[in-house]
Amino acid sequence: MITVKRLSKSFGDHEVLKNISIQVERQEVVCIIGPSGSGKSTLLRCLNLMETPTSGDVWVEGENLLDPRTDINKFRRKMGMVFQQFNLFPHMTALENITLAPTKLNRKSKTESGILARELLKKVGLTDKADAYPRSLSGGQQQRVAIARALAMEPHVMLFDEPTSALDPEMVGEVLQVMRQLAKEGMTMIIVTHEMGFAREVADRVIFMDNGMVVEEGKPGEMFVSPQNERTKLFLSKVL
Amino acid sequence: MEFWGVMSDALPTLLKGLSYTVLIALASLVLATIIGLFAGLMRISGNVILRSVAAAYINLIRGTPLLIQILFIYFGLPTVFHVNFSPLAAGIFAVSINIGAYLAEVFRAGIESIDRGQMEAGRSLGFSYAVAMRLIILPQAVRRMTPAFINQFIIGIKDTSMLSVIGVAELTMEGQSIYAMNFKSFEILTLVGLMYFIINYALTVASRWVEKKVAVS
């Protein structure tokens, strides 16, 4: 479904991603792990061109995103993204946050998108928060609304950029629970995370990155139990 | 009571001038807001040419006196280009581009004060830059900008008094024409000043009210 070929990305002289090639299949849940500054968030952000790669290709559902003829705005509608800092729109209620894109981009009526939004709020366990503004919600609740907002475009794949890193520890669980449910329903998911327990439990495949390169990838059962690469071993020994 | 007599004789003319001042101010402020929005957006654009044009405009206007700008548009331009503005048109034009330059900076600062993640979230949902700006960034920026905006409006209203130099029959001009005939400059100028003050003070109060409203929502 998603194919990345020889992708590189530099910020000035600093090469953040070095010649990365990965592939993600439909309905697959892939977790990207690695130390801070290893380039995992940048890689994720290259998948929907929130960052423009310096070189290489990104193919999504058979189309090259870096082809100038590709309408990137259309593609992003199929690729939901969840951010570390939630990035909810503070001047809108939870419901308005969720209905904005379907109403304006999918030309759904207010009623239609309202019904969809309420279903999604139910799914993330926030039925009673439809009219709440983001500032009155906890971090965990905000992130769940953000997930619902991304789902409202009925995306084919969901990209998660460290979705629990900005949360108080007691709120991590509720967000992971929503993600676990999504995975169960067959959503294709690419997740940058520091939650090793979650990665081990939910991921079909784990990619370990260090220093801008994919060092090792494999099934979580194998990678967490018997990592092959020295750097993977060192990293896992510190975080597990 | 000669004082009150002078005042009441002058009042109809001054009110006519005041209505002119308000009309010029409103027209200029609407135009200045449009100019300011576009110049502000150009100022933060990724396009180097747009950015430079906006920067040049803003710096040029901020670096020269409004009085010179008014004289330049009314007396300077017609000698080179074959355009003839009425004093009113020239006045509205001058005040609009002047206030527009300051509002451009207000817009720029307002937009830049919004967290980068807001634009990213909008773009990630599939909105174009322009639509995300309109639906997500500007509504938030405008709330933060309100005090600076009203401040600039007040300056704009006061600045319209300079249009008397090109013969626009606004409040200051009407005042001058009255005391030129009856020599009651103290009374007339007091009344003229008071009229400006009332409008601007009302705006200041409104601004505080809006600020409170915004702080709550």
TrEMBL record, chain A:
Q: Looking at the record's lineage, which domain of life comes first?
A: Bacteria
Domain called ABC transporter: residue spans: 2-236
Q: Subcellular localization, per the record? A: Cell membrane
PROSITE patterns under this entry? Answer: ABC_TRANSPORTER_1, ABC_TRANSPORTER_2
Name the UniProt key words of this record, in alphabetical order: Amino-acid transport, ATP-binding, Cell membrane, Membrane, Nucleotide-binding, Transport
Where does the protein principally reside? membrane
Which SUPFAM superfamilies does the UniProt record give? Answer: P-loop containing nucleoside triphosphate hydrolases (SSF52540)
List each coiled-coil range.
none
Task: Report membrane topology.
Answer: Peripheral membrane protein
Question: What family does the Swiss-Prot or TrEMBL record give for this protein?
Answer: Belongs to the ABC transporter superfamily.
- Write the protein's name: ABC transporter domain-containing protein
UniProtKB/TrEMBL annotation, chain B:
Q: Which Gene3D superfamilies does its entry note?
A: MetI-like (1.10.3720.10)
- Compartments it resides in: Cell membrane
Q: Which UniProt keyword terms apply here? A: Cell membrane, Membrane, Transmembrane, Transmembrane helix, Transport
Q: Which NCBIfam families match?
A: HEQRo_perm_3TM
* Superkingdom in the source lineage: Bacteria
Which family would the database say this protein is a member of?
Answer: Belongs to the binding-protein-dependent transport system permease family.
Which residue ranges does UniProt annotate as crossing the membrane? 20-42, 54-77, 83-104, 188-210
Main localization (coarse) = membrane
- Full protein name: ABC transmembrane type-1 domain-containing protein
Q: Which residues form the ABC transmembrane type-1 domain?
A: 18-207
Q: What is the protein's membrane topology class? A: Multi-pass membrane protein
